[in-house]
């Protein structure tokens, strides 16, 4: 999950300079810049093509066993000059049954999410408190079973207390999972972009069938 706390979205965007190549089988699933919006540019984040040493699911201190079932991963960010609104799309392939398992784990993590700060699985990320609100996807052209949420995390980074809200959408098709993370800009613009981009992601996942 991408937030501006710990993962430091500013640093992530600034250092994500390599365009996505065509060698990955997930290239057909990850969003194209035009699907995000006019003027957006796609950049692969550092480690965005790796599974080993990289985390896909990290929330509420939950131990995600599905992480061990990942086989391939591609994560990119989409930024536009002059705009603080940004999006990340992470697409992951799993061994048979792994993506469904991951979705079940996300639901379980939400249901059991503690209110107190919990450790992160991402190196360098401080303990965080999570406040999660599930959002309806009715009429939003998302895949059946999509998980849509507004995630507010708070913690102390470099001695300063920070709070950040990210709109997150998880969808799966067979053994491929797509995560959409939207941050920056106004809350309204984040929500609108999250739903619009997730509808495009659903189209890409359907084509994969």
Topology (SSEs and partners):
Layout: H1 9-15, H2 33-36, E1 41-44, E2 70-79, E3 86-94, H3 98-111, E4 129-134, E5 147-157, E6 160-173, E7 176-183, H4 187-208
Antiparallel strand pairs: 1-2, 2-3, 3-7, 4-5, 5-6, 6-7
Give the tally of structural domains. Answer: 1
Q: Give me the Rg, rounded.
A: 16 Å
SSE arrangement, N to C: HHEEEHEEEEH
Helix content: 10-25%
Overall pLDDT level: 90
CATH topology: Protein Transport Mog1p, Chain A
Number of helices: 4
Largest sheet: 7 strands, antiparallel
Distance between the termini: 25 Å
In terms of DSSP E residues, the strand content is 25-35%
Q: Structural class of the helix and strand makeup?
A: alpha+beta
What's the CATH class, please? Alpha Beta
- Characterize the overall form: globular
Tally of DSSP β-strands:
7
Low-confidence stretches: 6-15
The strand line-up of the biggest sheet is 1-2-3-7-6-5-4
Question: What is the name of the CATH architecture?
Answer: 3-Layer(aba) Sandwich
Describe the structure.
This protein has 209 residues and is an alpha+beta fold. It has one domain (9-208): Protein Transport Mog1p, Chain A, CATH 3.40.1000. It has helices at 9-15, 33-36, 98-111, 187-208; strands at 41-44, 70-79, 86-94, 129-134, 147-157, 160-173, 176-183. It has a 7-stranded antiparallel β-sheet with strand order 1-2-3-7-6-5-4, with helices on both faces. Strand 2 (70-79) and strand 3 (86-94) form a beta hairpin. The chain is globular and about 45 Å long. The relative contact order is 0.20.
């Amino acid at each position: 999950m991408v937030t501006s706390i710990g993962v430091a979205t500013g640093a992530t965007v600034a250092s994500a300079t390599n365009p996505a190549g065509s060698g990955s089988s997930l290239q057909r699933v990850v969003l194209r810049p035009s699907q995000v919006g006019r003027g957006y540019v796609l950049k692969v984040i550092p480690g965005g093509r790796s599974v080993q040493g990289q985390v896909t699911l990290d929330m509420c201190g939950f131990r995600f066993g599905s992480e061990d079932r990942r086989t391939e991963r591609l994560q990119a960010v989409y930024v536009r000059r002059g705009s603080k609104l940004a999006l990340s799309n992470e697409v992951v392939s799993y061994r048979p049954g792994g993506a469904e398992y991951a979705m079940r784990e996300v639901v379980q993590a939400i249901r059991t999410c503690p209110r107190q700060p919990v450790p992160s699985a991402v190196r360098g990320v401080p303990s965080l408190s999570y406040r999660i609100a599930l959002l309806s996807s009715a009429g939003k052209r998302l895949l059946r079973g999509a998980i849509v949420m507004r995630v507010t995390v708070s913690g102390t980074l470099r001695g300063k207390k920070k709070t950040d809200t990210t709109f997150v959408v998880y969808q799966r098709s067979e053994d491929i999972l797509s995560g959409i993370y939207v941050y920056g800009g106004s809350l309204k613009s984040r929500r609108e972009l999250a739903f619009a981009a997730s509808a495009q992601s659903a189209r890409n996942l359907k084509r994969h069938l």
